[in-house]
Amino acid sequence: MTNFQRLHTLVLPIIFLCLFPLRIASSPTAEAEALVKWKNSLTPPLPPSLNSWSLTNLTNLCFWDAIVCDNTSTTVLEINLSGANITGTITVLDFASLPNLTQLNLNANNFEGSIPPAIANLSKLTLLDLGNNLFEDALPKELGQLRELRYLSLYNNNLNGTIPYQLMNLPKVWYMDLGSNYFITPLHWSQYSCMPSLTRLALHLNPTLTGQFPSFVLECHNLTYLDISQNGWNGTIPESLYSNLGKLEFLNLTNNGFGGKLSPNLSLLSNLKELRIGNNLFTGPVPTEIGLISRLQILELNNISAHGKIPSSLGQLRELWHLDLSINSFNSTVPSELGLCRNLSFLSLAVNHLTGPLPMSLANLTKISELGLSDNSFSGELSATLLSNWTQLISLQVQNNNFTGKIPPEIGLLKRINYLFLYNNTFSGSIPVEIGNLKEMVKLDLSQNQFSGPIPSTLWDLTNVQVINLFFNELSGIIHADIGNFTSLEIFDVNSNNLYGELPATIAQLTALRNFSVFSNNFSGRIPREFGKGNPSLTDVYLSNNSFYGELPIDLCSGGQLTVLAVNNNSFSGPLPKSLRNCSPLVRVRLDNNQLSGNITDAFGVLPNLVLISLSTNQLVGELSPEWGGCANLTSMDMGNNKLSGKIPSALSKLSQLGYLNLHSNEFTGSIPPEIGNLSRLFRLNLSSNHLSGEIPKSYGRLAKLNFLDLSNNNFGGSIPKEIGDCDGLLSLNLSHNSLYGEIPEELGNLFSLQIMLDISSNSLSGALPQNLEKLIALEILNVSHNQLSGTIPRSFSSMLSLQSVDFSYNKLSGSIPTGRVFETATAEAYAGNSGLCGEIEGLTCPKSLSTDKSGGVNKKVLLGVIIPVCVLIGIISVGAILRRRHIIKHADEESKSNEKSDQPISVVWGRDEKFTFSDLVKATNDFNDKYCIGKGGFGSVYRAQLLTGQVVAVKRLNISDSDDIPPMNRLSFLNEIEALTGVRHRNIIKLYGFCSCRGQMFLVYEYIDRGSLAKVLYGEEGQLELRWAKRLKIVQGIAHAISYLHTDCSPQIVHRDVTLNNILLDSDLEPRLADFGTAKLLSSDTSTWTSVAGSYGYMAPELAQTMRVTEKCDVYSFGVVVMEILMGKHPGELLGTLSSNKYLSSTEEAQVLLKDVLDQRLPPPTGQLAEAVVFTMTIALACIRESPESRPIMRAVAQELSATTQPYLSQPFSLITMNKLRGFQK
User: Which are the contacts of 454, defined by CB distance < 8 A and separation ≥ 6?
Assistant: First the structure.
């Protein structure tokens, strides 16, 4: 060996040994520097745990917080910053400087931005947890290079795009959670394979994952946990799932669109402990084989459209502790075998069609803590044996059923209970004193039953209670002073009982109180002075319909939270509370029908949230302040029947939402502001019985939505503005008792909607009666008396077939009166004071020369004088109609040509199970040819469309276009509402298949019902032949359940808004189906809950004329009218006004109207049990049409009552029952 070779051999190892410690020392430095650089990029403030991350502390890297090094303390293995509340990104982190990192846990922070592809440099990573952050954008495909990864969680971020298929190549991953993001479905799942080690997979809460069941999952044979819930999956569950995934212990498919029948092969998943498949679109019964999955502990089958019987095989699931079968259509009794599931602690059977009494075997469920049986048709009593064994109950909910009898004293054994809901049944007797043992009670609801007697004194011992609802019962007695013990009480509602006495002063001690409702009782006395002052959270106060007197508490709104104050129909006196002036949260104020006095000029300030104010029928004085113009949300203002004076401020014109303005019967003077004509939403304007003067402003002609205008009993002068004829929505016009002069403008004949009255009597009007008034074909009352009108009464008035009353008296009219029922049956007083009038009325005669020729026939000249002009007029109209039709056809052809290439829908919302397209509808109706049109209504035309599949649907083409005429609501909101309506499922409600916007028009597609409307059947021959009493009662029950479903079971609640006979269809079995639900809301003038015209005249609730606010109680009123119409065979008409008003009780003449005389005379009177049912049904109808919305029942209660198996016993013969007696009838 040469010297050089020896030297080389000696030097190289020395150099290597010198360099080796330098390599070890530099690695921690590089890691530390990378971590500090990342830390410095984060958004301050930083958590204290990062204080140790510093360049001055490099030598202690392995002692930094959140850092774990290897055993030699030379390299970083783990970073755990979970829950540190850090904000920033991870793009600055140099992953290449951390080559030995095995765990990176950043869970529960605020990291944002993209996940960088450089993360693939962490080649030794076994755990990556980036869950519960704000990461966004697509996942980098480079994640597929982390071949050592075992645990991957990206849960709850904002990640999107498709999941990289490269991710599925990770051989060692056993846990993968990609839930709660925005991943989308790839074009083909075939590119994806399953990780061989994967046992836990979560893809839930990705609403943009849609389509069929992801096929790659079926290859994951080792899965024990699978969660793909709350996505957009649809179709059926593949049968291979049951054979391939036999190791599954947890399966969650809830909140998707899976359909089809549940497979009996579910039982192959024999290792399942948790099965959650609720909120899907499955059909058919639950397979009995489900009882073979013996290890099941949690079973959720809620809201899957299951029907038939509850499988008795469920009793084999002895380990089951959670069972949810709610919101289905099970229509059996509860199987006794369910009592074998002795470990059950949660059981929900709510919202089904279950019947019968509860089986006594349920007493075996001694561990039950939450029991939900609500919204069924259970009957019988709550057994003392059952309650005695359910002592672990925390929640018992049996509301909305048909339970009867008394509550057993054993209720006092439920000492752990927090929630006790027994409302809307027919429980009776007294509330047991043992209820005072339930010291843990939080919410108690016994409302809408028949409980009687006093509120037990022990109830006041429930010091933890937050909600007490006892309303709509027959309770009597007083409210005890011990109510002050309820330090946690938030809601106290005892309305509509027979309670009496004074309110105890201790109610002012309820510091948590929010809602206090005692209306419609027999309370009296004064309200405690401190009430409100000691209740800082008070939001709703209802004291209406009692006999309270004295002054209102001055500090009612001292807490500044009050939103509703309703004290109407009492005897309150004195001034208005000062605290109301600046009570800005106020939304509704009803002080009407009291004896309040004082000056209101400065009583109210600007209340920005106020929607309704009613001060009518008091003794208030003062002037209207201009500050009212600042109440920007005010829709209803009623100050009528007081002693208010001064001028009406023009500032009221700033109330752009105002729909109802009533200032009648006051002492206002001066002219009325023309700016009122700017109130485009004004629905009713009543300024009658004041001292107003000047001319009626022409600007009032701009009030396009005005339905009621009453300016009577004032000192208005000048002529009637012809512009009033532009108010084409007017139903009633009263200008009587003024000093108006000049001729009646012929433009009044353009008020085609005028229906209730046209009263221009007691003025100084002159000239002839305009023949144009003949066009008011819906008018019922016409009064032009006490004027100076001349000429004849136009014979064409005989075509006004709706007229019920006319008065032409005390004018200078002459000639013959027109023919027609109302003109010939009117008394002579209607024509008195017109010396030149003649006709076939007692007291009026016509000279023969004017009326007949010598042969006794009609004068030929008169005939020619009438016939010739009429014929000419008819000819002109016919020619015009033909020309117009040609123009329309030509225009339609042109439009069709321009649109023939644009049948593609602009907006589409179909129900999940609908398989047809808009093109199918066009073909089925020959492009909506008139020969397929089966009806026209207020919302549009309806077409019958038979699809190629044989399915028949009804297509409604709406009377608005796709864009220009759509109400000013957010389009997305409109489509969301349609989508919600397609989810409505009830046997008595027409199914809405979907919505389509195309070619500038909008279409709704419904289920087709062959018999047509109830109005058509009732008023046709079928009304007598097929609609016998039993069938009519059955129809009433179906309608009640349909409306109840919309009000109670739909979320959000749906108010129908137009319940009429025309919107109730009958199928081949005469089963009722409610139609047009929700359509009125969709086509209303805005997105709020009220509109100027909500419903059909004759069915609209009276409060709409004041508040214009549509609530579910408006549907209740309409339902009452419909029921009366069904029983009477005709619309109740004027009977509604007398029956709904309290004045009816004091009318001795009308009080003797017999029920038998009101019922449909085409049918023989009902007898026996049928008579009892008819009496009770009419009683329910009268309760529904009560004038006060608060006093009407809710539809859930109505439906339950009408479906009761027993009807009340008649205390007197059917033939002697009067309508007045039914108003006070109690079941």
Answer: 430, 475, 476, 477, 478
pTM (whole model) above 0.90: no
703-723 tens-digit pLDDT = 988 989 999 999 999 999 999
What gap in Å lies between CA 812 and CA 247, rounded to an integer? Answer: 99
Q: How far apart are CA 632 and CA 609, in angstroms?
A: 7
Q: What six digits make up the tokens of 1187?
A: 């004038």
Tally of CB atoms within 10 A around 646:
15
Q: Which residues are annotated as a binding site?
A: 956
Q: Which residues contribute to the annotated binding site for ATP? A: 956
CATH homologous superfamily for the domain 1015-1141+1150-1224: Transferase(Phosphotransferase) domain 1 (1.10.510.10)
**Per-residue pLDDT tens for 296-308?**
999 999 999 999 9
Q: Residue 631 in contact with residue 656, Cβ under 8 Å? A: no
CA dist 1048 to 232, 1042, 1094, Å? 26, 10, 20
Q: Is there a catalytic annotation at residue 65?
A: no
Q: What is the pLDDT of residues 811-836, one digit of tens each?
A: 999 999 988 878 888 888 899 999 88
Q: Which of 177, 375, 592, 1058 is catalytic?
A: 1058
β-bridge pairing 564-566 and 103-105 = unpaired
- From 350, 381, 344, select the one nearest 362 (Cα to Cα): 344
DSSP E strands in 63-212: the ranges are 67-69, 76-80, 87-88, 103-105, 110-113, 127-129, 134-138, 151-153, 158-161, 175-177, 182-183, 200-202, 210-211
Question: Which of 573, 629, 623 lies closest to 599 in space, CA to CA?
Answer: 623
CATH superfamily name and code, 185-283? Ribonuclease Inhibitor (3.80.10.10)
Phi, psi angle pair for 847, to nearest 5°: -60, 145
What are the angstrom distances between the C-alpha of 693 and each of 129, 696, 725? Answer: 79, 9, 21
| Amino acid symbol at 177 | D
H-helix segments, 443-517: none
Q: Which CATH architecture has domain 28-159?
A: Alpha-Beta Horseshoe (3.80)
CA 168 to chain CA mean position, Å: 46
Biggest CA–CA distance in the chain, Å, is 165
Q: What CATH number does the domain located at 669-838 have? A: 3.80.10.10
- Where do the H-state alpha helices sit in 900-1012? 918-924, 971-982
Quick one: tokens of 942? 């309806």
